[in-house]
Design a protein that fits this description.
Helix content is 45%, strand content 16%. With 436 residues, it is α/β, with parallel strands linked by helices. The strands form two sheets. It has a seven-stranded mixed beta sheet with strand order 9-8-7-6-10-11-12. It has a five-stranded mixed beta sheet with strand order 1-2-4-3-5. The chain binds nicotinamide-adenine-dinucleotide (NAD).
């Protein structure tokens, strides 16, 4: 089903005939409908529109490995470079059964716009292997990672494509990719991946960077709405890397965190939670369940709690046309990628909710990945204070630029962010021209 916004854009921009629209929770649809709206408002030339919506490279590879029981299993690996006009492709690799080419295409495009919004010299990429890592041993995961890396090695490299961790991949997986790539090249190339262990070329501050970026833009949003930081109440869905760091830093900044949750459910206390105690609890018990500092709350209830700031930091498609009307938060800071569907956008706009969109709100992670790449290439490493200061400067500037774009065109922060990102990528294409 197409929505009215995209239909309107189609008549003006004349996209390809093979355009597909699926459902509200299809990530490619979610990305394209916002892209179309922003492109139409920018009066993007039809030719450039076609270039920007089409991924540059989509690679599908077979990844055969020997399982621990001696049997051979063949997995499917994908790597997509959406656009590299501004620099090497940057984007994570996920190991998950739900990986599809459609999803990887959408995520790669999001990376293009995200890197442009924070003005990094990177394009957008994404990758994945369709597998269930929870059923695999460490040895199997290492063989899978190394074979996948070998299969896509032609496109990898500090100047062409620089992966990072994503769903179900971590520092250890990045170390295996770096080692496999380096073995093929015959020398150590740390800058081929980011999100590595600090001991082998990772950056200080990378682990906290996405949550810290959320803090910076939330402070800016509160200021814009005239809400004092120390009077703000916050609810955070997802208590992993992004959610738990955002919750901890916001509490340290004086905000009152009234609810947090993970995939088993959440904890609510209108007087404010002790976030540090919740982190200690999760370190010992894995999940928030049973944490004595508040009452249980479901993930659905958490989203509609009365609060100033809602931080969805777990999954995509949690704020939809079904629950958007019930959202009571004044600000939504999207820690996760794609937590709000395109249909929900219109409802939130109508209600006047100030949404800091994912391609701005969670860009702190890729920003410090950029710092890691710079440090690896320069062979000179910064202290954590320098990393955090430079991160804050970039996030603050990007927030102000998105606000300026949104105000100038009378659009939401989301469409303002897309317009800023698309405009920067389009400008690069215009200057470079088309290689014939
Ligand atoms: P993570 O795996 O560390 O944490 C995910 C959290 O979400 C966990 O607490 C988990 O229990 C919870 N969760 C899982 N299913 C849930 C459900 N059904 N309902 C509620 N909670 C659920 O992941 P992360 O790195 O924190 O990433 C979270 C989101 O942020 C993802 O969308 C990711 O793409 C995005 N993101 C992460 C980074 C980064 O640097 N880690 C950067 C940009 C964007």
């Amino acid at each position: 089903m197409s929505n009215p916004k995209t239909r309107r854009a189609q008549t003006i921009i004349k996209p390809d005939r093979d355009r597909r629209f699926v459902t509200e929770d299809n990530p490619f649809e979610a990305m394209m409908s916002r892209f179309d709206d922003a492109a139409r408002r920018l009066n993007l030339e039809p030719g450039l529109y076609k270039v920007l919506r089409t991924p540059e490279k989509q690679i599908i590879v077979a990844v055969p490995i020997v399982r621990d029981n001696g049997e051979i299993e063949v997995y499917t690996g994908i790597r997509v470079l959406h656009n590299t006009s501004r620099g090497p492709a940057k984007g994570g690799i996920r190991f998950d059964l739900a990986v599809t080419l459609d999803e990887v295409n959408a995520l790669a495009a999001w990376m293009t716009w995200k890197c442009a919004v924070v003005n990094l010299p990177f394009g957008g990429g994404k990758g994945g292997v369709i597998c269930d890592p929870t059923t695999m041993s460490v040895g199997e995961l290492e063989r899978l990672t190394r074979r996948y890396t070998a299969e896509i090695i032609e496109i990898l490299g500090p100047d062409s494509d620089v992966p990072a961790p994503d769903v179900n991949t971590n520092e250890r997986v990045m170390a295996w990719i770096m080692d496999t790539y380096s073995m093929h090249k015959g020398h150590t190339v740390t800058a081929v991946v980011t999100g590595k262990p600090v001991e082998m070329g990772g950056s200080l501050g990378r682990r906290e960077a996405t949550g810290r970026g959320c803090l910076v833009v939330t402070r800016k949003a509160l200021h814009r709405l005239g809400i004092e930081t120390t009077k703000a109440t916050v609810a955070v869905q997802g208590f992993g890397n992004v959610g738990s760091t955002a919750a901890r830093l916001m509490a340290e900044d004086g905000m009152k965190v009234i609810a947090v949750s993970d995939k088993k459910g959440g904890i609510y206390n209108p007087r404010g939670l002790d976030v540090k105690a919740a982190l200690d609890w999760v370190r010992e018990n894995r999940f928030l369940e049973g944490f004595p500092g508040g009452e249980p709350v479901t993930n659905e209830e958490l989203l509609t709690l009365k609060c100033d700031v809602l931080v969805p930091a777990a999954l995509e498609n949690v704020i939809t046309s079904k629950n958007a009307r019930d959202i009571k938060a004044r600000i939504i800071c999207e820690g996760a990628n794609g937590p709000t569907t395109a249909n929900a956008d219109a409802i939130l706009d109508e209600k006047g909710v100030f949404v800091v969109p994912d391609i701005l709100a969670n860009a702190g992670g890729v920003t410090v990945s950029y710092f890691e790449w710079v440090q690896d290439r320069g062979g000179y490493f910064w202290d954590e204070e320098t990393v955090n200061e430079r991160l804050e400067k970039i996030m603050t500037k990007a927030f102000d630029e998105v606000v300026a774009m949104a105000d100038r065109h009378g659009v939401s922060m989301r469409i303002g962010a897309y317009m800023l990102g698309i405009d920067r990528v389009a400008a690069m294409h215009r200057m470079r021209g088309l290689y014939a």
